[in-house]
Amino acid sequence: MTHPSHFIELFFAILALVGIWFSISNFSSVKRALIGRPMRTAELHAQHNKLIWYIALPILSADLYSSVAYGPESGITELVKLGNEAKWYIIPITISTVVLLFILIISYIMGILAYPNGGGAYAIAKDNFKQRWVSLIASGSLLVDYILTVAVSVSAALEAIVSAYPIVAPYETVLAILCVFILLMVNLRGIAESAKIFAWPTIGFAACMMILVFTGLFNEVKHGFVQPSTPPFGSVPKGLTILLILKAFSSACSALTGIETISNAVPIFRKPQQKNAIKTYIALGTITSITLLGFAYHLYVRGISPNPNNTMLSQLTEYYFGHGIMYQLIIWFTFIVLILAANSTFTGFSQLAAIVAADGFLPRGLTNRGDRLGYSNGIIVLAATASLLIIAFQAHTNALIPLYAIGVFMSFTVAQFGLMRRWKRVKGPHWKTKLTINTIGAIITTIVALIFAVTKFTSGAWIVLIVIPVLILFSLAIQHHYRDVAKELKIDLKTMRPEANRVITIVLVSGVHRVVQNTLSFATSICQENLLALYVGFDDDSMKKMEAKWEEWGNPCRLVTLKSKYRSVLEPLSRLIHLIEEKEQFKSQIHIVIPQFIPHKWWHNILHNQTALLLRLWLLRHRDVVITTVPYHLKN
Amino acid sequence: MTHPSHFIELFFAILALVGIWFSISNFSSVKRALIGRPMRTAELHAQHNKLIWYIALPILSADLYSSVAYGPESGITELVKLGNEAKWYIIPITISTVVLLFILIISYIMGILAYPNGGGAYAIAKDNFKQRWVSLIASGSLLVDYILTVAVSVSAALEAIVSAYPIVAPYETVLAILCVFILLMVNLRGIAESAKIFAWPTIGFAACMMILVFTGLFNEVKHGFVQPSTPPFGSVPKGLTILLILKAFSSACSALTGIETISNAVPIFRKPQQKNAIKTYIALGTITSITLLGFAYHLYVRGISPNPNNTMLSQLTEYYFGHGIMYQLIIWFTFIVLILAANSTFTGFSQLAAIVAADGFLPRGLTNRGDRLGYSNGIIVLAATASLLIIAFQAHTNALIPLYAIGVFMSFTVAQFGLMRRWKRVKGPHWKTKLTINTIGAIITTIVALIFAVTKFTSGAWIVLIVIPVLILFSLAIQHHYRDVAKELKIDLKTMRPEANRVITIVLVSGVHRVVQNTLSFATSICQENLLALYVGFDDDSMKKMEAKWEEWGNPCRLVTLKSKYRSVLEPLSRLIHLIEEKEQFKSQIHIVIPQFIPHKWWHNILHNQTALLLRLWLLRHRDVVITTVPYHLKN
User: Fold this and answer.
1) Quick check: B607 and A478 CB within 8 A?
2) Which residue of A17, A345, B137, B436 has the smallest Cβ count within 10 Å?
3) pTM surpassing 0.95?
4) Which residue spans traverse the membrane (chains A, B) (predicted)?
């Protein structure tokens, strides 16, 4: 009966309470103002209009394309401590990143060909591996990475703002949390991810980046491709190791997260869906490559160094355009696109969580659609965990990067191996080419994932490498529990039917007054026999008084009076239950009827004993008794 | 149905939950380790041994005598900004304080003569004024001041430690909160306030202070009563105003809080009780006066200035004894005595709160004795509010002083006026002398209270002057509520008896499985007619399936299937209740039976819908229905 886990229970109870409030405040004006009127289930399928590919492109590319704002910078940050001579490495590293981007895009095109209805890494793994844990690696690593995407994107968005307005630097964490809260509300309201309005900021950002790249090119044509500020090319700085280069490469690869978005979204394309999705992939790859390469080259030519309070993108823009309108445009487009990237993750996370939960590997609550038809619980979990990360890492993008992307590459790897198995099994036209492509993809993503794990291990990746296996173990335990429960609850409809039992009803009375009268009226309505009233007194005097009063009241039923040495109703009631259970040899059902005051004003609750509530909680958990609460609504 | 107060409700619900946890974790090992085994009510009267006066003296004087550690310092802090020339004012100010101390002690001796069974300001006011608000001024101001005593004493205790060990300065607030937490636990364990062990630290502290005073005197005899460091005497510094002097005087009066302790404790003295208590008062007054005057004089001679990181007591000790053993002794005795002062306040606060609550002016929960026979709720409220004050004022004694003492002087005033009325009414031997003494006392405490209110108003006293009236209004509202409820609940035993009613029972079913079978078995045991099962489906398909299954199950009772457009059980159930209420013209009692899973492991709760809990909460608050929970304890 001793629970050392009471503190943890308390914590969960508080969490649950917040959830409960959100659920029961169904008609609350606060909730309505924040997330809008509830929507009918029937409204679910009325929203999708199929998209032309060049509209789908900006909508689906926010996640990947926005990463150019922090990818190259986090790569070079690793090397810059070796001095000016290491700066040229940004060029080979960016080229490797772009090569990897194309390999991944081609691999994902294979995925589209295999699963035209859209299939993420989890679906591919589920379809091709019997072992449940393989698909759980895919889902676990993707879920963890979605959380990191929100943390990283929002932090990077605020770093853009801080570059332009250093005065807000001390409030970075608070503002980041505020952004997550706004994203939470927006997603609980359930704005469709595919709304066309989301195309414009990404188009604007891409246009700005192109202007930046071509302004840079123009500048270099005019002032020379080697400028006074250009660091030496090809030099090997002292202290450079392969490990350091690999570390820089894996940091730069954080720019590749978000590739999976298009392949998950095939169904929203206009027909021919596969062809259009492939077109989009190629266009996105081309634009991203140009941006990454151009951006990296200009950074090198200008010899720009990372600065924690001024992003390299901001520094470069300042150099070309000063602090004018163009600078403001780029900063604000960067901010909006990064926030959009975080926003699209909310849909991705909650949908994946709902799919995995429907398979029984995560709490079933994640499959519930909220008032506005989004998977509210998943949305809330994502916002909460991302906020915790932002607080823990104080909204510093470069501190979060080592945790990031490793999950994405793990899920990439699982997906590639899944596709390999599929081509071998299903075959079909050109299957050998497809198999070759995915095999190359699998090998490369495995290598990249390993590079991540090794080079980033000590700077934070170990957290992810612990969290993902733990998540998998939990998922397996959860499914185990659901199966056991299902087995336990299953009954044979023909033989196991409800059967009436002997019921012994105990009504708790604290005196003779209207609440007790109300409660006893109900009790006598439902049972005429085996009814007894229990009075717990703290001293002999009060017990005698009660017995006399009961007599005067005409003995409505048998009264049992018990004395509590410890001033608590729990202990004598517990004793009585035990006694009855033994006497009846556990054959009768014990039924406790508890009166409960419901005061008119909520703050009056603190003026009345909450014994009813306490008793109910304790009895339900520790005894096999049925509990009835008879409310008495106070008029005052 | 719209509640804008939902957020506040949530806050109170969380508070309640913490309380609930503490209450239901009756057998929890954590609670047992912290506060010990529960004690029987019968153990209550087995603890008091009557005390000889010279043992009672140190036990009861911690609160008053410990104030010498901060009283003179907070007085001179007000003046020191006028420069060195203002320092001599510490002498006249301390003399006035000592004069006031004697007037108060004589007045309180009158109180002992009038109420030999111990009577605080609240009891005196209650006995002598018909107007309830007069006694509520006394109780309200005392309760507020008790809270401040804890905050001020603990802060001052930590300032003593910080003076000796500047390294802990940044952790002052955290350590202060920790001290309050330890005091909370100690008081929930219920160590008797009158334990003789508490005499020693105060004796030790008093001895140290005497040694300090006489060492100073010796030093001055040897090196002259005017030393190079002595500031000029009798000069009037520029900028000195009457207001400033009064402000300094009222700050110094913070040394006078705690006088009431002895008069409240008359019953713990050996016989003749009154005589012994009076002896104690005179001895305490003498020792306190010598200490205050000697301490103030030496501070003046040495020209010591206040320093936020080194108390004046510490500076003086350093000067006479260096950083040796004597210094350590004085610092640690100061610390312990100040903590003891805070400790004795816990008993004072919780007892006064229980007395006022028993009169119906505060929530009745404050009269409950906890497991260890102390008034736990009062103890918890005191610890919580004092902690909030410490956090808000970052454990700075001098920031808290302006809020302090005004309450004490308000209650002193009420007590004096009460005693005046009593002498006029009761008369008795020497009543005219006694009346004169209390009249002088009343006039002086009124003046001092006014000086406090005026001089400290802007630096924080306004908070107290708002809080006390608000507390009084709340108290009156609470009593009003209790009276109304009592009136509403009262019934005529002869005519109003429990009456059986028609009951309509609705069993919520989510399918056909063991939990539903269990629930329906109970429902059929208690009622044969007017029983119906309600199934809420989210789509037509599930509803049809359920109907077929029910048929196959042999139709155990009538099944109603309702569709929820908004994926919630609440709304269709609410509709059904409404319908039945109208059809039955509110003559039958509606009874909802809800199945509830009780998982084997607590963390499994997050894997199951908490619909039962949510429904119960909402229905109890918003509908007049009886709710029965039928638990099903999962084996897995």
Assistant:
1) yes
2) B436
3) no
4) 6-30, 51-70, 90-115, 136-158, 164-186, 198-219, 239-259, 280-300, 320-342, 373-395, 401-423, 435-454, 460-478
